[in-house]
Amino acid sequence: WELAKLPLYTITADGSRLEVPDRFAHVRSRDNRVLGVVGNVYRSVTNEDAFRWADELVGGFGAHYKTAGSLYGGKVVWVLLDVPFEIKVGDQKLRTSIYLTNSHDGSSPVEAAFTTTNIVCANTLALARHSGVDRVRIKHCTNAEQKLAEAQKTMHLVEGARERTAQLAEELFAKRITRETVGDVLDAVFPLPDTKGVEYDDLERGLKRSLSIAEDKRNAVMAIYAGAAGDALGQRQSDGTAWGLYNAFSAAYQHQPLLGKSEDDRVRKADAIFDRIMSAQSPADKALDLLVAV
Fold first, then answer.
1. What are the backbone angles phi and psi of residue 45, rounded to the nearest 5°?
2. CA pseudo-torsion sign 145, 150, 153, 158
3. Beta-bridge mates of residue 67
4. pLDDT tens-digit profile of 209-254?
5. Quick one: which of 64, 59, 61 has its CA closest to 79?
């Protein structure tokens, strides 16, 4: 995508056009889509520039590109690289990955973040974040040696995060939890609204909707943690463990139906899901905080 910083104007009440000082529209040239408003020191970084450093990882460390996409109409672009490390938890295998994100709306710099995914289900894990900040900002450099240094820095991040993740995953797998603990975590992550003993049919419409949404989310988690859905996702061996409950929250969030009246609504819902996962604000992240403390 070719990008351009174009002057930004506003229209006064009498119809006069005024240029906004030190502010620019960041525009995708092929369709003149405004991706964001940026300042005068902002430097455009194309997707090619942002991902070029990742080629060093692909060629030098055995990593390979897995998938890529864009969010919010092209404002944020991401790529996922698989790296050649595996973590074993019981009979399950986790593969390690690097997400690279690049924004064109001025919301963030080019960033790389560590993650792991369950090989039987795309459950993004935030385990490493509990013992270290596993995220680096990649500066766009024209010098090849500097680019390689950034790539190596990211790879060392993944190696260290893998060790922390393996240790914490093993601890969660060995931690048995009771149904009371399961209920406490559900209450904390998806609290039921206070109906004050009122029968369901007598509740106000808004309260009925809130109750239904919370119950649906809780049921989706339990269907994976202790139900038939868990069998399909390979969860059976971790039933009754903190690891199993954590993965149930993660799988339920990522496998939720993309409801919406239009395709645009469903796309926005998918964008929001991905964004919460990458920013460590998903229900699974909240559940993990609680399960680590149990």
1. -125, 110
2. negative
3. 80
4. 888 999 999 999 998 888 655 555 555 556 789 998 998 998 899 8
5. 64
146 CB-side CA count, 13 A: 6
Residue 37 identity (one-letter amino acid): V
Segments in the chain below pLDDT 70: 60, 119-126, 129-134, 140-142, 227-238
Which are the contacts of 186, defined by CB distance < 8 A and separation ≥ 6? 218, 221, 222
Q: What is the spatial distance between Cα 223 and Cα 245, in angstroms, rounded to a whole number?
A: 11
The 3 state secondary structure assigned to 137-159 is: ECCCCCCHHHHHHHHHHHHHHHH
The answer to whether the beta carbons of residues 242 and 294 sit under 8 Å apart is yes
* Number of neighbouring beta carbons within 10 Å of residue 10: 10
> Three-class SS of residue 123?
strand
Residue type for position 143: N
